[in-house]
Amino acid sequence: MGKIINILPMANREDNLQEIMEALHEVKDALVEVLDQYEEEGAEEKADTLTEALDALEDAYDVINDVVMDEI
User: Fold this and answer.
1) Closest Cα to residue 34, out of 19, 21, 53?
2) Which one of 2, 13, 22, 70 is least enclosed by Cβ atoms within 10 Å?
């Protein structure tokens, strides 16, 4: 997951946002895997905290998607 997002001033904003959305999706998937591990270990407090982080990533993804789709 060592992908670098190259945001250039001359680049298309929508393309940049699409790359960010893809990166967020990758981070969400990785976080779900870690969250599952904590849940399997019974570390509920950490799992709850990571669930909040996952919710925040999903919210960020949704907002960026709304901008790309011109819904804002």
Assistant:
1) 53
2) 2
Residue 52 belongs to some domain of the structure: yes
What is the spatial distance between Cα 19 and Cα 25, in angstroms, rounded to a whole number?
A: 10
Residue 55 domain flag: yes
In the chain, the number of structural domains is 1
Average pLDDT value for residue range 14-43: 93
Both tokens of 12, joined, read 């298309």
Where does residue 30 rank: exposed (0-12), middle (13-18), buried (19+ CB within 10 A)? exposed
| The pair of three-digit structure tokens given for residue 31, joined into one six-digit string | 């976080």
Under 8 Å between Cβ of 54 and 24: no
Both tokens assigned to 41: 């270990």
